[in-house]
């Protein structure tokens, strides 16, 4: 875009990283006062840390982009996430804190007395984390690509390096303070520009999203088609094409194209007139203003509800949270941490709504390239050209960079612990190796599989939530609340869940149409898969009732009864 | 997405391949008939062993008797304790009531005993003979293993007493396990007693010196002393939280600071995440005491002692460091391997041993030291114990 | 991190050696060491009544979460007329989702948490040992802090 902006952002991001690392060490500085040193992290700070580990690039950038592309109905996803927090606080926070487990894998081994189930849970956790990390890398690549003009791999490498430095030094101190500080940074970075933009919008014209009409270009615009793509024109449009359209070669001549999908070859330049309707890339459906504002879910209901359910249950199984409970001062504190974190995250997610609304007014041309993920970054300069816009854009970019880095750090710590415990055996060196694997594998996947980087943020994060929802979450929920869960039952459920997820990823690619019967059966939506996993766990556990650990009662007691001492 | 799919497909293929490889390998192993029989017997025995290592109880007997029956190859088997039938496996449950009566001569005499002409009144029940073999722990008969068969000739009398001998061995090991735990408990008590005399004397002298000049402070110190004493005499648990342990050290240090004043400089650095970590009771205090002895005593000027607790993934790392006179590595090595004479460093050795007892050898103390180079004692604690208390 | 403590004094020429007990050295060399399981917990308390009593509040909470997350969008989709309802110039659905659902969720959660804590404490109320349940929180520490006059922190500040 503008090299100046790029430079400014690079400098700021570096500065921020340095500050972060420096702040880390100074915070870890010693004191001679034991009472101060052994004070547990305050509730607000641990809640902010829990919120900070969750507000990733997908929330920071992807959510507003999704709202812009799919309309307001995407808000339901956020409602589902909040419901996930409710489940987390109500069902697992306090019992897990009392049980004293550090990770979902620990929980599986402790509750079911089986190392193999532990390994299976670890595999699920690690896979979830890797997919989640992939999303962070993809976001970093997009940021670097767009703002600095460097190739995307520079962004991936940068994030990997910074995360590695932070996590390995985090092992010299504590992670709560770090995550908490950066939650506030992120909140300010997304909130302050949002408020300023709202004020500017009111001062300027305060126009509302029109109920009729599709997004239109506010000025003559040239769209560069980077790769072969199908663009959907909402209405009959006259445009100038230099390149190939629908197999026809055109040399900068004006054509009239009917409403509907058209094929454009890579390298084509399309010039639209002022007031022309914005074409929609990536199969996005053009939405009239009224449709955009609606809360009606227009995806097939089953699919939409599957996403909802995956989000609700997915939150429960995310590995960062379980680790956060371990560090809580008490079971009460663990519960309260989730409640406060829910409030904080709710406050945070007001802002993507603002960006999406303003984006529909000022930046709807992003739909033409499918780059809706960057609407948060692009908006400040659209609304306020000049120094103010630049400053706000920088602020938002710093926030996005912070989101990528902090969430990567949180994930890498959790995964590093899991990997080192499960595969390598404990110890400092093994933990470092584990962190290296946690960070390195997604990076290697991105480098070796070039198509991976093009997947946009939200589907990747959804996949991570889906894995967690049909594997780790059922084990946690049943293990905490149902005495008769056995290792065999849990293992069977985990296998079904993993197979279901794998099929869901594979089936759409094998050419098997998910709409047809066998395809639908294989690519089972979460709405069916999650109950199936629960059912398999329950039925197989009942069938293997002999294998209920003999001290299951004691374990349940430990999880549910407050203890008088310790 | 495509690549993700290919990736997962590859992983799936690899796991299938591994399964096939294992199956083929297992098949190959079973080619030798004699070896296969031994292997099967050992395998069955190994299945029964974990239950028996819990000691002889209703629950452990229930879990073990199935495997013992398949080891004996009889239609039914039972385990009887001194106070009645513990477990029955196999057909003819009508005999289970008689099992206690059958076992009685064995429990009394300690010799294997064969009964024929059993009759339960049920014509469908084919059990007509039984052998009872004693389970002996420490020279005392604690129970009997019974095997039932259709006739005396089909009775594996020899095998039954051999299996009973093996079961007795496992039960003795279980007893040994219990002794080991009791020993560790005793050790903790022993360590607790060691704290007192030297330290109590010093404390009381220090407090006495404040009684006139600063009665308020003397009062505070006495309260500290009382708190610390109460903590260290607490007897119920082996594990406590790092939080509690650090607080007790705080009280201890308040007393030491009163004694050394400006000469003791202290730095604490604790990550709040590791405060709930379970640590052995009184595992840090001896180390801090050691650091103060080496950091300040025997050295002019100011001594620095720092306590650091860091969060490291699934573990908590704690170190206690001083900049004092250091220790001779060879002597320290001898202390840690239990070969040193004299009483110095016994606290270190004790903490080391308790840590290894509790968490495994890999969690012993790692000490960096040299003459004149100060000492740094590193401890690692797993954040989670699979069977934690 | 093998840093020296930052105390004053001459640079120390002697180097430190790493010492462990022989068993630890062997265990560390053969990596992949895992913690030993310690002995078992005694006395399993009876948790079944508590779980039974919690069934209703917990079920209600789960139902609420699933209803808001899964059924509410279905409601708005299957009954499109709801979408057309406008209150004070704003669609009802918006008000419901932005102003209604989040506070409701927090309220339900807070209620549930307090209720669950109440139930748990009641379940743990008859202490077998006799001592009443120590209320959680830093009360104990406050008492300690009040009783003990600390060494003035300023002095340590000067010494550094």
Automatic annotation (TrEMBL), chain A:
Membrane topology: Multi-pass membrane protein
Key word Membrane present: yes
Annotated keywords: Cell membrane, Membrane, Symport, Transmembrane, Transmembrane helix, Transport
Transmembrane helix keyword on record: yes
A molecular-function term among this protein's GO annotations: symporter activity
One annotated Gene Ontology cellular component of this protein: plasma membrane
Annotated TM spans: 6-26, 47-69, 75-96, 117-135, 147-168, 180-201, 307-326, 338-358, 387-412, 433-453, 459-481, 488-509, 521-540
Principal localisation: membrane
Pfam families given in the database record: SSF
GO biological process terms on file: plasma membrane acetate transport
Cell compartments where the protein resides: Cell membrane
Family: Belongs to the sodium:solute symporter (SSF) (TC 2.A.21) family.
Name used for this protein in its record: Cation acetate symporter
TrEMBL record, chain B:
Entry EC no(s): 2.7.13.3
Top-level EC class as recorded in UniProt: transferase
Protein name per its UniProtKB record: histidine kinase
Recorded superkingdom: Bacteria
SUPFAM superfamilies: ATPase domain of HSP90 chaperone/DNA topoisomerase II/histidine kinase
Keywords associated with the record: Kinase, Transferase, Two-component regulatory system
Catalyzed chemical reaction(s): ATP + protein L-histidine = ADP + protein N-phospho-L-histidine
SMART domains linked to this entry: HATPase_c (SM00387)
Pfam family, one: HATPase_c
Any Gene Ontology CC annotation: membrane
């Amino acid at each position: 875009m503008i090299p100046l902006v790029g430079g400014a952002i690079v400098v700021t991001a570096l500065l921020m990283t340095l500050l972060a690392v420096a702040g880390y060490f100074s915070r870890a500085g010693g004191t001679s006062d034991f009472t101060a040193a052994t004070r547990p992290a305050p509730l607000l700070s641990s809640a902010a840390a829990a919120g900070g580990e969750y507000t990733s690039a997908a929330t920071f950038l992807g959510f507003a982009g999704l709202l812009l592309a799919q309309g307001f109905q995407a808000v339901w996803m956020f409602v589902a996430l909040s419901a996930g927090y409710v489940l987390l606080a109500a069902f697992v926070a306090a019992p897990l804190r009392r049980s004293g487990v550090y990770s979902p894998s620990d929980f599986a081994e402790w509750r079911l007395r089986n190392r193999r189930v532990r390994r299976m849970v670890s595999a699920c956790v690690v896979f979830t984390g890797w997919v989640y990390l992939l999303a962070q890398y993809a976001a970093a690549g997009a940021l670097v690509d767009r703002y600095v003009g460097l190739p995307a791999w520079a962004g991936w490498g940068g994030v990997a390096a910074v995360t590695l430095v932070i996590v390995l030094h985090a092992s010299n101190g504590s992670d709560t303070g770090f995550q908490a500080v950066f939650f506030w940074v992120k909140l300010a970075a997304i909130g302050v520009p949002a408020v300023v933009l709202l004020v500017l919008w009111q001062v300027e014209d305060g126009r509302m999203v029109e109920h009729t009409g599709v997004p239109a270009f506010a000025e003559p615009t040239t769209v560069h088609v980077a790769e072969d793509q199908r663009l959907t024109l909402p209405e009959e449009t006259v445009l100038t094409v230099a390149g190939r359209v629908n197999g026809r070669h055109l040399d900068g001549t004006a054509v009239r194209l009917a409403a509907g999908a058209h094929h454009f070859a890579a390298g084509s330049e399309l010039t639209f007139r002022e007031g022309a309707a914005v074409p929609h890339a990536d199969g996005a459906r053009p939405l009239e203003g009224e449709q955009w504002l609606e809360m009606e879910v227009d995806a097939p209901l089953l699919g939409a509800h599957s996403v909802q359910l995956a989000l609700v249950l997915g939150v429960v199984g995310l590995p960062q949270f379980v680790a956060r409970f371990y560090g809580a001062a008490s079971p009460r504190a663990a519960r309260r941490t989730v409640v406060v974190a829910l409030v904080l995250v709710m406050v945070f997610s007001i802002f993507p709504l603002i960006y999406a609304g303003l984006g529909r007014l000022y930046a709807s041309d992003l739909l033409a390239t499918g780059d809706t993920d960057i609407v948060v970054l692009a908006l400040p300069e659209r609304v306020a050209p000049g120094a103010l816009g630049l400053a706000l854009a920088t602020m938002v970019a710093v926030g996005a960079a912070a989101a990528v880095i902090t969430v990567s750090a949180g994930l890498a710590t959790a995964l590093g612990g899991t990997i080192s415990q499960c595969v390598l055996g404990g110890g400092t060196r093994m933990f470092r190796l584990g962190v290296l694997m946690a960070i390195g594998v997604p990076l290697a996947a991105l480098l070796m599989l070039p198509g991976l980087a093009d997947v946009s943020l939200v589907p990747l994060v959804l996949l991570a939530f889906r894995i967690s929802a049909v594997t780790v979450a059922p084990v946690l929920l049943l293990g905490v609340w149902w005495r008769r869960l056995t290792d065999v039952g849990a293992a069977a459920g985990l296998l079904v869940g993993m197979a279901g997820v794998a099929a869901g990823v594979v089936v759409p690619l094998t050419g098997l149409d998910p709409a047809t019967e066998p395809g639908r059966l294989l690519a089972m939506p979460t709405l069916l898969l999650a109950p199936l996993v629960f059912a398999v766990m329950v039925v197989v556990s009942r069938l293997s009732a002999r294998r209920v650990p003999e001290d299951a009662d004691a374990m349940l007691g430990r999880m549910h009864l407050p203890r008088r001492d310790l | 997405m495509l690549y993700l799919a290919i990736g997962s497909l590859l992983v799936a293929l690899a796991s299938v391949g591994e399964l096939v490889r294992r199956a083929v390998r297992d098949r190959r192993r079973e080619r030798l008939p004699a070896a296969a029989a031994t292997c099967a017997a050992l395998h069955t025995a190994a299945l029964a062993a974990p239950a028996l290592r819990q000691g002889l109880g209703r629950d452990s007997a229930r879990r073990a008797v199935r495997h013992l029956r398949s080891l004996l190859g009889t239609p039914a088997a039972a385990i009887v304790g001194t106070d009645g039938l513990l477990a029955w496996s196999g057909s003819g449950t009508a005999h289970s009531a008689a099992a206690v009566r059958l076992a009685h001569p064995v429990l009394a005499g300690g010799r294997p005993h064969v009964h024929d002409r059993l009759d339960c009144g049920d014509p469908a029940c084919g059990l007509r003979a039984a052998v009872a073999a004693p389970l002996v722990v420490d020279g005392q008969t604690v129970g009997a293993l019974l095997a039932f068969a259709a006739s005396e000739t089909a009775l594996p009398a020899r095998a039954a007493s051999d299996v009973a001998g093996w079961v007795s061995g496992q039960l003795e090991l279980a007893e040994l396990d219990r002794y080991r735990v009791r020993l560790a408990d005793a050790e903790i008590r022993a360590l607790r007693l060691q704290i007192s005399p030297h330290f109590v004397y010093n404390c009381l002298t220090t407090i006495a010196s404040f009684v006139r000049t600063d009665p308020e402070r003397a009062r505070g110190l006495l309260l500290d002393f009382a708190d610390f004493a109460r903590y260290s005499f607490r007897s119920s648990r082996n594990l406590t939280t790092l939080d509690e342990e650090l607080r007790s050290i705080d009280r201890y240090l308040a007393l030491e600071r009163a004694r050394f004043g400006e000469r003791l400089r202290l730095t604490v650095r604790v990550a709040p995440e590791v405060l709930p970590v379970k640590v052995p009771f009184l595992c840090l205090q001896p180390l801090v005491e050691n650091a103060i002895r080496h950091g300040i005593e025997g050295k002019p000027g100011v001594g620095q002692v720092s306590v650091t607790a860091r969060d490291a993934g699934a573990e908590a790392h704690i170190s206690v460091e001083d900049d004092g006179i250091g220790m001779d590595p060879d002597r320290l090595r001898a202390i840690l391997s239990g070969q040193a004479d004299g009483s110095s460093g016994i606290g270190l050795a004790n903490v080391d041993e308790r840590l290894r007892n509790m968490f495994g050898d890999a969690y012993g103390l790692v000490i960096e030291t040299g003459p004149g180079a100060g000492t740094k004692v590193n401890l690692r604690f797993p954040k989670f114990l699979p069977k934690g208390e | 991190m093998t840093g020296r403590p930052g105390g004053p004094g001459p640079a120390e020429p002697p180097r430190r050696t790493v010492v462990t007990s022989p068993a630890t050295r062997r265990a560390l060399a053969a990596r992949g060491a895992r913690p030993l399981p310690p002995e078992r917990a005694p006395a399993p308390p009876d948790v079944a009544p508590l779980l039974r009593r919690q069934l209703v509040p917990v079920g209600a909470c789960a139902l609420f979460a699933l209803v808001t997350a899964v059924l509410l969008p279905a409601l708005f989709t299957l009954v499109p007329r709801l979408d057309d309802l406008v209150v004070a110039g704003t669609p009802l659905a918006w008000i419901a989702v932005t102003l209604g659902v989040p506070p409701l969720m927090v309220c339900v959660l807070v209620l549930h948490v307090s209720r669950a804590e109440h139930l748990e404490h009641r379940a743990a109320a008859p202490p077998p040992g006799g001592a009443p349940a120590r209320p959680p929180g830093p009360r104990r520490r406050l008492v300690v802090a009040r009783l003990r006059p600390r060494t003035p922190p300023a002095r340590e500040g000067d010494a550094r």
